[in-house]
Structure formats: structure tokens, C-alpha cells
Amino acid sequence: MAVSITDDVQGFWAARWSGAVLGWHKRDVNPHLQKYNDLLLEKDESNRIFVPLCGKSVDMAFLATNPKVSHVVGIDIIKQAAEEFAEDHPALSLKEFQPEESCEATSSGSVYHGDDITIVVGDLFNLLQMENEDRAKYITASANDGTTSYLFDSIYDRASMVAIDPSLRNNYAAYMGDILRPGGVMLLVTLDRRKVTNDAAKRDGPPFSIDESEVRQLYESQAWVDTVELLEEVDDLTTDDDMKRWEKKGVLKLYELVFVIRKKNSSEPKETQK
To answer: What's the DSSP call for residue 92?
Structure first.
């Protein structure tokens, strides 16, 4: 019997990681990140970037080695993701640490610290629901860092919102505002199953379908959001193999949508939807 992402998030993703092929993992830096990374780096230096549901994405190494970036923080519920990322990028000197205090946010009790990068192994929503001061303990720049910053200058979401259960999207959008500094930026990439052969193909996932209208509905209704801009949409079915693979799933047209979402430039507390 298949594991349900709703009933057992860790079990679901553990089963996916046990497969021979990780369909969501790309060997090269995401072209959207390469094209729009300047939007994430609006400060001249010391940009802190959050990468939710990071997996072992090479995008994190791309960001962490940028001279304008002071710290990248990723989180994934599968420890194997952090282990393999550390093996794939030895120059970042990632090492496993055990937090002094146990916390539900870390399913394995592990946090990996390296040069300008931290990977928390745990449940994303558990981390987001923590009090700010408690969350800061897990997202500092090193195991011995005494800073207590819990805000990020930017968020890079290439594979997070499309991976979570759709019932959690409103909470997710609200929490992104909680961890983003005033005036901060979110670069969001979604998938739009624009033409399908049946309703089930539209609802299937992950990755789940999120079109422009839903992104706008979710984020423009958030009190923290200033603007939502669609930067571009890209046809994701450009080869015969891609078309055949997705046609078997009932998807005939599939697009990647790239958004930039800006937070209001105000530090006043906002009422968010939870």
C-alpha cells in the first residue's frame, strides 16, 4: 500500500528517496535561479537565504558560494538529503551537529553546518511554527554562533510549495511572511498542469499543480505581501520523452511559472492567516 503524503510525510518522502531515480533532483543549477538570482541578492552583501524542502539541490551550493551571500539555510525531512549534499560538496565543509536541546523540528536531531550554509533535518512546518527565538537556534550560521536572527532577506522556493499537501498552502504562505524581513523577496517556481485528460491528473502530485490565479489568490490575500509578479512561464514538455512520460500521467500541457513576491517595507506586525 502506498504511503500517503497527508498521513505520513516522512514515510512518504523516505519511500521516494529509496527509489533509483529522484525525479525532482537536477544535476545542474536551475536556469530560473541563474536568470533571476539577482532578485534574491538585493543587498550588496550579507544576504541570508532560506531554501524550504531543499533536498540535495545544487542550487544551495550555487547560492552559498556567491560573495553576496552570508548564509543559506535549507530544511528537508530526509537525513539522506543532507548527507548526500555534504558528500557532493566537500568544499562547503558540512558537518553534522546535535542541538543541545531536542526539538520536534529536527526529526533526526541533526543540523548540518558548513561554510555559509546550514541544513536542518526535520519537518518544515514544525520549524516554522516555533517561537522566533527558538527557531533562531537551528538556523544560525554555525554550531557556535551566538546570533539570534530568525529573519531572512530572501526565500528561494523551487520545489517546496509544489511538494506540500494543497491543504497546507494557506498556512505555508502565511509562515513565509513570518520569516522574511520587511522589504524581503521570495522567488517562487510552480508547475501548472494546464491541460489534462482527467480531473485526477490535475489533482495528482507531488509535484502538485499551482497556476497563476491560485498563486495570486494565496499571496495577494496575505497582509504581509506588497506585490506578486509573474516573471515568466516556460513550457516544461519540450522533448518527446517528457511528453510521453507526462502523457502517461494524463498531463498534456505543463508549464513552469516563475514569480517574485515582495514583502511590504514595514516592520509593523501584520495579521496573518493561519
So the answer is: G
Sequence-ordered list of residues with C-beta below 8 angstroms from that of 267, at least 6 positions apart, any chain: 182
pLDDT tens-digit map of 80-99: 899 999 999 999 999 998 76
SS3 assignment, position 233 = strand
Nearest to 13 by CA among 53, 49, 69, 50: 53
Q: What is the pLDDT of residue 225?
A: 98
Taking a C-beta distance cutoff of 8 angstroms, is the pair 174, 126 a contact? no
Mean pLDDT to the nearest integer, 67-80: 94
Per-residue buried b or exposed e for 43-74, using 16+ beta carbons within 10 Å of the residue's own CB:
eeeebbbbbbbbbbbbbbbbbbebebbbbbbb
Give the Cα separation of 211 and 192 in Å (integer).
5
DSSP letter string over 242-266? HHHHHHTTTEEEEEEEEEEEEE-S-
Q: Which of 41-45, 132-136, 177-181, 231-235 has the lowest mean pLDDT?
A: 132-136
Coil vs helix vs strand at 24: coil
Q: Say whether pLDDT at 170 is over 90.
A: yes
For 70, the 3-state DSSP assignment is: strand
User: Three-state DSSP class for 148?
Assistant: coil
